[in-house]
Amino acid sequence: MFHTLPAAVRSHLAAFRMLLVFTVIAGIVYPLAVTGVAQALFGHQANGSLVHRGGHVVGSSLLGQNFDLPKKNANDPNEAPRPDPKWFQPRPSAGGYDPTVSGASNLGPNDPGLIKTIRERKAAVAAFDGVNPGDVPPDAVTASGSGLDPDISTAYADEQVNRVARARGLDPAAVRKLVDHNTHSRAIGFLGQKYVNVINLNNALAKTP
Fold it and tell me: Do 185 and 200 meet the contact criterion of CB atoms below 8 Å apart?
């Protein structure tokens, strides 16, 4: 029957059949295969690296979040957040760890506003952690490029150990052990620096009796 059709029509029909075949392969078979492999071999990562506690999702190890005290006045949008001394604190975020506004401040290192902000942050962090301002590490006062970085330097984690232990009535050695357990080595042994995932660290801390 198709042989009796004009050549142009036959060409269009052949093209349409190829479209259907590749739609099934690329649009159905391939995505299902990739999803199946991902769920079978990398289920935790494929589902967002979710962090659970008490049967509930409390975050993702890929996204930073704030660990603040409840507002004194829940109806006051201008009330400044207050970091909770019982938790390890993340680095600052230009977007307040809101995933819908991911990004940096885009301020240059010589910007007067940024310099003033860093100076104020350094004084606040030093007072909060009970250390000398000169000992505050850079990542404690500067935001990441994404504004959602869940990791901090080992120096910043170590700085917070005594404050967290004191607020929770724990032995500093036990808290430091948690930090060590949640410290990641350099990528492939030599790239970057060691770092601590704050989300996983605080989750481990919450499970500490």
Answer: no
**pTM across the whole model:** 0.79
- For residue 3, what pLDDT is reported? 61
Contact 83, 93 (CB under 8 A): no
Among 180, 182, 176, 175, smallest CA distance to 197 is for 182
For the stretch 77-115, what's the b/e string if a residue is b when 16 or more beta carbons lie within 10 angstroms of its beta carbon? Answer: eeeeeebbbbbbbbbbbbbebeeeebeebeeeeeeeebe
Query: Mean per-residue pLDDT for 160-172?
Result: 97
Q: Do 38 and 70 share a domain, yes or no? A: no
Confidence of residue 2 (pLDDT cuts 50, 70, 90): low
CA distance 37 to 167: 44
Note whether residue 57 is domain-resident.
Answer: no
Q: Which residues pair with 151 in a beta bridge?
A: 197
Domain shared by 82 and 139, yes or no: yes
Identify any residues that bridge with 60 across adjacent strands, giving them in sequence order.
Answer: 50
Check pLDDT > 80 for residue 182.
yes
Domain residues for 193? 62-206
Cα angle 144, 150, 154; round to 5: 90
Residue 184: which of 153, 148, 155 has the closest Cα?
153
> Does 161 reside within a domain?
yes
